[in-house]
Specification:
alpha/beta; Rossmann fold; UDP-N-acetylmuramoyl-L-alanine:D-glutamate ligase; Protein-Tyrosine Phosphatase, Chain A; 3 domains; ten-stranded mixed beta sheet; six-stranded mixed beta sheet; 33% helix
């Protein structure tokens, strides 16, 4: 497995291990969020890449990440030269899903949490699901991937990003052929692949059209882009959201520290109240989609309600890291303006209005530039904003400081306390001086390391 430490690759490795497949892998030497997860599976990997690593393997699977160079990686080229079978992560996941009835979770935000919620509910209600979720850990299931011989369903995130950018720009979800699709939201993201929102909608619609006629598309009906994309789509569709026009309506939301309570009504039938132990209106939507799947599969509501209280979240999704200097340190994966707004709004409710400092690491140059105005408006619920240099993830080239300075300046038009901070030492000094009780590191790169550094200090 080339790039074995990627979140999606680690989940796939867990599935393959359950199938008694012997796994070797390679990746960059830098510390990554999945290092501990791989160690729990007793998997080791080579640091860096070499043709010598490719000997007599039956199959080579490569992440689609640019930093690993895709099919241009020396290990991939060696495998192809030796005639060893080669698949991208997206292709391999699709092959594995084909052994079961697939449930794909797509959308610009919420894929990981919704997939993990669904896996937990199915596990706790006896459905014995297989799953591959792009998180280092699912609380309470543990490993982010599992292949269960006794169950008939396979849950997977369905990513709209390129299979292998520059070599195969088809969406990764192209390789999945599910019986059920959940779609959280459609927004313009990944401008390096999709030039505009119309191109994004087109890709999602093509994915929806893969559904069999006896399948279901379960989709957030409050999202306008979702509604536009499914217009005149001849597939079985179940919508959910707060609007009365949805098949499943979310009602009576009560948010408080440590607990959220909400009610559901499905086609005028009252399903009663549900308790969720993770914060945020967006997570009520995520939970609702998972609940609908379980109910459609015939699981009694009381069992679903009981199972839902077991879910405690996933790694890097509003995860509590620890306390230091009298401050709580949290970490969140939000990296798109809509996700940032949702996460910070959830945090305000969860912490009862306590003051918040967010340390945000922009992810990719193209996204930051294209969505600059939306980013600038997304931090209103934070009391202090610290912007780090852009994390490109090897996808693009550019000056990480210049782009982030531009972002910080744009945010300052709407926010009084904004700083661009290029060095960790400066962040530590800022945090020591700040009055804020809650510190949230945020972004899709390696910003989680900042939280760990703060705790060490």
């Amino acid at each position: 497995m080339i790039g074995i430490k990627g979140a999606g690759m680690t989940a796939l490795a867990a599935c393959l291990k359950d199938k008694n497949i012997k796994i070797s892998g390679s990746d960059l030497p830098e510390k990554f969020i999945t290092d501990q997860t791989l160690a729990k599976m007793n998997l080791t990997w080579w640091e860096n890449f070499s043709a010598d690593h490719i000997t007599n393997q039956d199959l080579v699977i490569a992440t689609g990440s640019n930093v690993h160079r895709g099919p241009d990686n020396i290990e991939a080229k060696t495998a192809l030269k030796k005639g060893i079978a080669y698949l991208t992560h997206g292709e391999a996941l699709g092959v594995l899903m084909a052994e079961k009835q697939g449930i794909s979770v797509c959308g610009v935000g919420g894929k990981t949490t919704t997939s993990a919620l669904l896996a937990t509910l199915m596990d706790r209600t006896g459905l014995k699901p297989s799953f591959a979720v792009g998180a280092g850990e699912i609380f309470p299931l543990g490993l982010p991937g599992r292949f269960e011989n006794r169950g008939k369903f396979f849950i997977a995130e369905a990513d709209e990003y390129a299979t292998a950018k520059g070599f195969d720009n088809r969406p990764r979800f192209f390789w999945q052929n599910p019986q059920i699709i959940i779609c959280t939201n459609i927004e313009h993201d990944h401008p390096d692949i999709y030039p505009n929102l119309a191109a994004t909608k087109k890709a999602f619609r093509q994915f929806f059209q893969k559904l069999p006629q006896q399948g279901w598309l379960i989709i957030n009906g409050d999202n306008k882009n979702n509604q536009d994309t499914i217009q005149n789509l001849n597939k079985p569709i179940i919508t959910y959201g707060e609007k009365e026009t949805n098949s499943c309506q979310i009602k009576k939301i009560q948010s408080s520290p440590k607990k959220t309570v909400f009610s559901l009504q499905y086609n005028k039938q009252n399903w009663g109240s549900f308790v969720l132990k993770i914060p945020g209106r967006h997570n009520i939507f995520n939970a609702t989609a998972a609940i609908i799947v379980l109910k459609k599969l015939g699981i009694p509501l009381e069992k679903i309600k009981s199972a839902l209280t077991d879910f405690k979240g996933t790694k890097r999704r509003f995860e509590f890291l620890g306390k230091t200097m009298g401050k709580q340190i949290w970490d969140d994966y939000a990296h798109h303006p809509s996700q940032i707004k949702a996460s910070l709004s959830a945090a305000k409710d969860w912490f009862g209005g306590k003051s918040i400092t967010v340390i945000f690491q922009p992810h990719t140059f193209s996204r930051t530039k294209k969505l600059l105005t939306k980013f600038a408006n997304s931090f209103s619920k934070a009391d202090q904003v610290i912007i780090l240099p852009v994390y490109s993830g090897g996808r693009e080239s550019g000056n990480p400081n210049t782009v982030s300075q531009t972002l910080a300046k744009a945010i300052s038009h709407y926010h009084q306390k904004v700083d661009f901070v290029p060095q960790i030492k400066t962040i530590k000094n800022l945090i020591k001086k700040t009055d804020q009780e809650i510190i949230i590191t945020m972004g899709a790169g390696d910003v989680w390391k900042i939280g760990q550094e703060l705790l060490k200090s």
